[in-house]
Amino acid sequence: EESNVNSIRQYVTAEVSEVMVEFQLDTGSDITLIGKDDWVRMGKPELEKCPTKVKSASGNELQLLGRALVNFTLKGSEGSGYLYVREHGNLLGLDWIEKSEEMSYHMGMMVNALSHSTSGSIQEELQQKFPKVFEEGLGRCTKEKAVLKVKPNSTPVFKPKRPVPYGALETVEKELDRLEGLGVLKKVNHSKWAAPLVCVKKAGGDIRVCVDLSTGLNDALEDEDHPIPPPEDIFASMNGGRYFSTVDFKDAYLQIELAEESRHLFTINTHRGLYEYQRLVFGAKTAPAVFQRIMDKMITGLSGVTAYLDDVIIIGRSVQEHNDNLFEVFKRISEYGFRVKLEKCKFLEEKIKYLGFIIDRNGRRPDESKVQPIKGMCDPKNQKELRSFMGMITYYSAFIPQMKSLRGPLDKLLLKDVEWRWSTKEAEAFQKLKDVLSSDLNLTHYDPQIPIVVAADACDYGIGAVISHRFPNGDEKPIAHAARSLNAAEKNYSQIEKEGLGLIFAVKRFHKYLFGRKFLLRTDHKPLLSIFGSKKGIPVHSQNRLVRWSTILRGYDFDIEYVKTDDFGQADALSRMIQKFPTENEDIVIAQVEVEVEETLHGAIRKLPVRVADVQEETQKSKLLQEVQKYVSRGVWPKKVDEKLKRFSSIKESLSCVQKCLMMQDRVVIPEALQKVVLKQLHEGHPGMVRMKQLARSFVYWPGMDEDVERVVASCNTCQVHGKTPRKVPLQPWKTPERVWQRVHVDYAVPENGHTISSL
């Protein structure tokens, strides 16, 4: 058996400190080991203490005398590195092997003997050593509190509370109680500042409580001076790294306490009164810079560690070095009282994607996904699609002159009265233009010091987006492109919802570039400006999905701008001429919103004596509702409509299509055929007119619903008998006053002539 083992072992000779030494090859070892005898033969190079413990493949700790820094020559390549000295046995590890071109080439043929840690084992060890870091619940930073100030002479803005649907009251109150129990919120009686509460239903019926700081506070906040590290600094810190880990914090901002003097600024106005935030709020304009400052302070003095907002990146030139750095980071995280989200952490990766680049042991290279949407464009099928593509060419031709010489065959197809014929000649021109568009000539590297512009567009079957830099001369050059096709549910969205989806897709896809920095968001759909860009806050009567998406955007610092469709070539073509693109991780939030909206529909109908299928069927049978759905989907209503349609067009911004049903905000639009059975259910128990209207307004809607409720109650003897009537109070004489103006009596009357009389 011993001879069989020896037969597969491979050895190589290296010159170390002018002495020839034979080593056993071991690609599984991160370090190079040498026996004591050979160390003596080399002249006993000076030893230093080993900074970390080393384990064998069996998990046993190796007894080392120390390590020495030496020069060596291996297969014609010269280098320097550490030798770890032990009693017996020489092993050539990865740290030396990778410094030899020839040895690196043949690495795949070498034999593993000394094991390195795996991602799973690291995770287990971290959980054992730092259990509190992985606990459920909310962490609390013990080292520093967030101080946010308003600009001098800022006028406090106090916004009134927003109505909460009756059917959601109980759930909202439970969430407020939960946040109060966690120490996130605290009940207060008075505040000069107050922002409205925004409630968003999640899948399963839970509520996400948000605060709409766009209503005044964000404009008043003083800027935070602490810089967010530029990409070049981050990439420089990763040079030489072979192994990488990323750490994700759980509810990152909420783990930072607000300083006492800042808390009054972050007050929310609810139906239960005022609540004051005790923790840093996602959506505060200066929160990213505040968080970055605390992260930078936490990692001060650590090797191989970079913090970029709520991402902490750890690198190592070997597994051992990586693990040492990783454990030091977790030690700091534990000392600071933070908690991490284990499912989003990645350990011991050999490459990571970051800010448009792939980083691995060979350095960084552009991420092909930045231009994949352009490379994946399919040939145009008609003049409309070609015109959209040529709009993109025109947009970028300013700084790529050779585009003009390539577009000739395609321009001819756009001439009036020219028959559409797509031949090899046009296909070749199209491909050459795509190659130029996706080349380095048309891309610029991300630089946070240069203004950022994000454009997004949507059509019936796709969405496209591009993030660009605007240079001092006014030119815009793309950093990255993104696109994807719409799924079956999204194709049924109204046009305004598709356009809104495009903006959310763009912002989430380019999150790493945008978060914590001011940028310009562009759309060619003007109605979105009042929903996503209003300083008055999220409109109360906006559609379900748009309200949810608007709360997502509140965490970013941006201005929104309308651009005519004719001038929107950079995003328009991507949305129209895409092939099937898979849904990326960035789309999870979008998918989650769709789940929430569908759950709202099902949750409302569960409270009714009808099924979703019943509502779907009767909605499809109703000519009126089919016409309404058509206009909702197109996003365009006729200027003149009949009285029945007018009652829907007056609330068009609140309407949306969900699973072949029509919804008005969170309420289901009930077809006429089902209205009687719904009224019957609402009337059970004879709740009275006010209560019955409250119930109806919580879950359902149809034009004239209030009048129908009044009619049902008025025709019900039981409701009339038990209805509340004002109790007659006997007249009481007033005491004679002792002095003039001691008591004042005021009343008013409206005679038949229509004039109002006030009597004093």
From TrEMBL:
Residues 181-359 form the Reverse transcriptase domain. Transmembrane segments: none annotated. InterPro entries: DNA/RNA_pol_sf, Integrase_H2C2, Peptidase_aspartic_dom_sf, Retrovirus_Pol_polyprotein, Rev_trsase/Diguanyl_cyclase, RT_dom, RT_RNaseH. Keywords: Endonuclease, Hydrolase, Nuclease, Nucleotidyltransferase, RNA-directed DNA polymerase, Transferase. It comes from Caenorhabditis brenneri (Nematode worm). Its EC number is 2.7.7.49. Signal peptide: none annotated. SUPFAM superfamilies: Acid proteases, DNA/RNA polymerases. One of its GO terms (molecular function) is RNA-directed DNA polymerase activity. PROSITE patterns: RT_POL. PANTHER family: PROTEIN CBG26694, PROTEIN NYNRIN-LIKE. This is RNA-directed DNA polymerase. It comes from the Eukaryota.
